[in-house]
Amino acid sequence: MRGIASKGQLRMSFLRIALFTVPAIVLLGIVSGRASNSGYSNGWFAALDKPAMMPEGWVFGAAWTILYILLGLVLAMILHAQGARRRGLVIGLFLAQLLLNYAWSPVFFGLHQPEIALVIILLMLALAGAAAVLMWWIRKAATLLMLPYLAWLCFATALTVQIIQLNPNASELAPSRGSADIAL
C-alpha cells in the first residue's frame, strides 16, 4: 500500500536526518579547531595584537557550538526537502561554504596566514549568503536559522581584517608548525 506520509512520519524522517547532520557538523568543527590549535592557547595567536572588539576565548567556543548546531539543522531541513526546486544547488553551496569554514582555522591558526584566511571567510560569506537566499524558496525556517551564522561571519570577517591591520607581519611572527626556520 502506498500513501502519503503523515505529519508524524515526516517529523520522524526529519529527526533521523538531523540526528546525523547535527552531530556530524559539530564534530567536524571541533576536529578542525583542535587540529589547528585554535584559540588563545595558540602561541602565535596569543602574540598577535588583538582588536578592542575581540571577545574572550569562551565566547568563540559557545558561539561556534550553537552555530554548528544550527547549521546541522539547516542541512537536515534542506536534505529533508526532497523534490524541492534548486535543492541540489543549495546543498552544493551549503557544503562548499561548510568546507571553507572547516578550512579557515587550519589556515589562520595552523599556517599563520590571516590574509588567506580573509579570502576564505569572504568566499564563505558569499556562498553562505547565496545558499540562504535560495533556501528561502525551499524552507524559510532554514534561511532564518542561517541568519545568526551570517551575522557571526560578518563579525569574524571584521575581526580578521582588524587583526591583519594590527599585525601587518603576522605570518612572519612565528615559524609555522613543521618549519625549519629559526627566528633571530
The total number of structural domains is: 1
Number of helices: 6
**Would you count the extended β strands for me?**
0
Second rung of CATH, namely the architecture? Up-down Bundle
Q: What is the percent of helical residues?
A: over 70%
CATH superfamily: TspO/MBR protein
Low-confidence stretches: 178-184
Largest sheet report = none
Helix and strand run:
HHHHHH
Describe the global form: elongated
Head-to-tail CA distance between termini: 77 Å
Q: What would you call the structural class? A: mainly alpha
- Rounded to an integer in angstroms, the radius of gyration calculated over CA atoms is 19 Å
- The fraction of residues assigned to DSSP E strands is under 5%
Mean pLDDT: 90
What do we call the CATH topology? Ferritin
Provide the CATH top-level class: Mainly Alpha
